[in-house]
Amino acid sequence: MTQLTGLLNSKKFTSLLHSKRFYFIMLGLAFIAVLPMFIGSEYVIGEVLAPMIIFAIYASSWNLLAYSGQGSLGHAAFLGIGGFASALLAIKLGVPPIVGLFVGGLFSAGIGLLIGLACVRLKAWFLAMVTFGFSVIALTLISQFDSVIGGIMGFATPLIVPRGIPFYYFTFAIAATSILVIYLVMKSKLGLAFKAIRENELEAKMTGINTGKYRLIAFVLSTFFAGIAGGLYAESIRYIQVSIFDPYYSFLPLMIAVIGGLGTIEGPLIGSVIIVSIDAYLPRIDPFLQGLMGPLFPAVSNVGPPIRMMMLGVILLLVVIFAPKGITSLINKTYAYLRRDKKEVKP
Amino acid sequence: MITPSGLAETLLWGVANGCIYILLAAGLSIIFGVMKLVNFAHGQLLMIGAYLAFTASVVLGLNAYLSILVAMGGVALIGLGVERFTFRKVLGTDKLNEIFVSLGLIYIFENAAVLLWGNKSAQIASPLHGLLSLGGISISYDRIAAMGIVIVILLSIIFLMKKTKIGLAMRATSQKSDATQLMGINIEKVYIFTFALGAALAGAAGALYGIIFPFSPALGALPTIKAFAIIILGGLGSIPGAVVGGLLYGIAENTAGYVLGGIWPDAIAFVLLIVVLVIKPTGIFGGKGD
Question: N or C: at which end does chain A have fewer Cβ atoms within 10 angstroms?
Answer without folding.
Answer: C
